[in-house]
Amino acid sequence: YFFNQPTMNNIFLFITQLLLSDDNCICVNSAYIIGSIIEIENGLELFLSIFTVNCTIDVIQRLCQLLTHSDFDCVLNATGILGTICSSKEGRDFILNHTSINDIVSNIAMLLNSINVWIAGNAALVLARIPIEGIG
C-alpha cells in the first residue's frame, strides 16, 4: 500500500535530499530510512525507477562520498544501501554504469580494513555482489 501512494516518488526524493545535510544525525537517519525502504523488493524497484531517470539528486555519488565520512553510522548506512542496491541485476547495472564506479570500488576496498566489523562486512558484501554481472 505504502509504495502505491502517488506522492511516494516525492517522499523518496525529499528523504534522499536529506543525505546532503551537513548535520550527521539527519544524514544518518535519512540513510537509515532509505536503506530500510530498499530492503523491501518494491522499495528497491521504486528507488531504481526514480533515480535511474531522475538526475536532480545523484544519490550514487552522494553514497560514494559518504563512504569516506568521519561518522561510522554514515559509512555503515552508505555501505548497507550500496549492498542492497547491488542485490538486484538492475541495481548492479545502475552502479556499474555510474561515473563514480571506480571511486566506489576504491572506497569500498579501503573499508575492508575498517575497525568496525559491520562496515567491513557491508563492504565485503558490496564487493562480492558487484562482479556478479559480466561487466563487474
Automatic annotation (TrEMBL):
Signal as UniProt keyword: yes
Signal peptide: 1-21
Keywords, comma-separated and alphabetical: Signal
UniProt xrefs under InterPro entries: ARM-like (IPR011989), ARM-type_fold (IPR016024), Armadillo (IPR000225)
Taxonomy, superkingdom: Eukaryota
Entry keyword S-adenosyl-L-methionine: no
Record-linked SUPFAM superfamilies: ARM repeat
Any Pfam family matching the protein: Arm
Protein name in the entry: Uncharacterized protein
